Amino acid sequence: MTKVLFFGATADAVGERSVEMPELAGSTAEEAIARLRNAYPLLANQKINISINQEYAPTDAIVNDGDEIAIFTAVSGG
Amino acid sequence: MDFWELTTDAIKIDDVARRVVSPECGATVTLDGYARRFTKRDGKVIETEYLVYEAYEEMALKEMQKLVERTKSEFAISNVGIVHRTGRLEIGETSVVISVAAPHRRDAFAACEQLIKELKRTVPIWKKEVYADGEAWSEGESFGDAI
């Protein structure tokens, strides 16, 4: 089961903090973002980073079944 | 000893600063980052009523650890402590404390600057500014493969 987490602006755009999306397994990070934008059109307006298992992922990284992925806008702590 | 933590409680700056002290050190540089009311943006002054910070906790702790390790490999410093607060913060309340202890102050100043600069770029924490008439998630500098 692939879990997707949202934070800050992406959580507001999606209206959820986490969803299960088994269909993301096997796709690249870039494809996963495209699928999420299809499901949640407000994400189209945002420049998005993706992490896989709590590590920043390049766009060509592969999402595996059971991964925890997160999508978020540029961080702004401090 | 190095440490990196997230908390929803008020941060005690002295505690962070003293925890990094060790016998080979002669100076600690501590950054006290706190919530600002007035921000200049596009030539206008924006007034913030309060802030809300949110973290991707597991990943934030991993990124803080990497940041500490990277910085220690680049500067002649002994100990680093980072504590970041999340949740609602009133104006003037401390959001982040970074303390760097070193044998000599110069290295501690340089490392502290690098730590806050990189923390703001890489550690998954987000700040929401709440105004009298709305709110907005602040967006930092883009990092990694953002699309």
Question: Can you give me a brief rundown of this structure?
Answer:
The complex is a heterodimer of chains A (78) and B (147). By secondary structure, chain A is an alpha+beta fold. Chain A has a single domain, classed as Beta-grasp domain (Ubiquitin-like (UB roll)), CATH 3.10.20.
Fold and architecture overview:
- The complex is a heterodimer of chains A (78) and B (147).
- Chain A has one domain: Beta-grasp domain (Ubiquitin-like (UB roll), Roll).
- Helices cover 23% and strands 23% of the residues of chain A.
- Chain A is built from two helices and five strands.
- In chain A, β3 and β4 form a beta hairpin.
- The N and C termini of chain A lie far apart (34 Å).
- In chain B, β3 and β4 form a beta hairpin.
- The model of chain B has no long low-confidence stretch (mean pLDDT 97).
- Chain B has one domain: Alpha-Beta Complex (Aldehyde Oxidoreductase, domain 3), CATH 3.90.1170.40.
- Chain B contains three helices and ten strands, in the order βαββββαβββαββ.
- With 147 residues, chain B is an alpha+beta fold.
- The chains are: A alpha+beta (78), B alpha+beta (147).
Strand and helix map with partners:
The complex is a heterodimer of chains A (78) and B (147).
Chain A: E1 3-6, H1 8-14, E2 18-20, H2 29-39, E3 49-52, E4 55-56, E5 68-72
Parallel strand pairs in A: 1-5
Antiparallel strand pairs in A: 1-2, 3-4, 3-5
Chain B: E1 3-7, H1 13-19, E2 27-34, E3 38-41, E4 44-47, E5 50-55, H2 57-74, E6 79-85, E7 87-90, E8 94-102, H3 105-122, E9 125-131, E10 134-137
Parallel strand pairs in B: 1-6
Antiparallel strand pairs in B: 2-8, 3-4, 5-7, 5-9, 6-8, 9-10
